[in-house]
Write a structure and sequence with these properties.
Length: 194
């Protein structure tokens, strides 16, 4: 695996696919998993269209490039009932012999003002890893690169949001030296169907 910068337009379809499939992990706000996937895909598409390359924002992608990694891309994901794309419908099969590389994960990094001080902070708005490559160091590499990006940009902190019940994401962040800094309370005020 190697990391490289996002290539506008060339990478969009795969990033959108990974973002939508990431929603399989949970559907907050009472949305169905399918609707959550569409919501995440639309949100990322809007961010890529509006912000890429503006104000220092960045996207870093992880690329499968070893024969073993490319072979893994030809296998179906764990779930055969993916309502979005079906098994391995992410742009065709990749053979190890073809030498083609595929995106297996990405991190979207934005610079935004800190809510309390107004100072610029780094924020990870998306981090997605193809489920076939989870627990193989891809996410760790992406977040390590995110920390490096924040330091290069002179940002005083780097943050990401996580659902309170997502214990594995919290543990993952803590393993990379992130700490819980605040808790947001909310109450639904309208029906999703309204």
């Amino acid at each position: 695996m190697r990391l490289r910068p996002y290539r506008r337009h060339d990478d969009d379809a795969r990033l959108l696919e990974l973002s939508q499939l990431q929603a399989d992990q949970g559907a907050p706000w009472g949305l169905s998993r399918f609707d959550q996937g569409l919501f995440e895909r639309k949100r990322l598409a809007d961010e890529l269209q509006r912000e890429q390359g503006v104000n220092g924002n960045a996207v870093v992608v992880a690329i499968a490039d070893t024969p073993d990694e490319l072979a893994m891309l030809t296998t179906a994901p764990n779930s055969t009932s993916d309502p979005v794309s079906g098994p391995n419908d992410g742009g065709g099969a990749v053979s190890a012999a073809s030498g083609m590389s595929r995106i297996i994960g990405f991190v979207y990094l934005a610079i935004r003002p800190d809510t309390s001080s107004g100072r610029p902070e780094g924020h990870i708005s998306h981090v997605c890893v193809d489920r076939r490559f989870r627990h193989r160091g891809v996410g760790r590499s992406l977040l390590t690169e995110a920390k490096h990006w924040a330091r290069q940009n002179g940002l005083f902190k780097l943050s990401f949001d996580v659902m309170a019940q997502d214990e594995s994401a919290i543990a993952f962040g803590e393993a990379l030296d992130f700490r819980i800094a605040s808790v947001r309370m909310e109450i639904p005020c309208a029906s999703v169907d309204a």
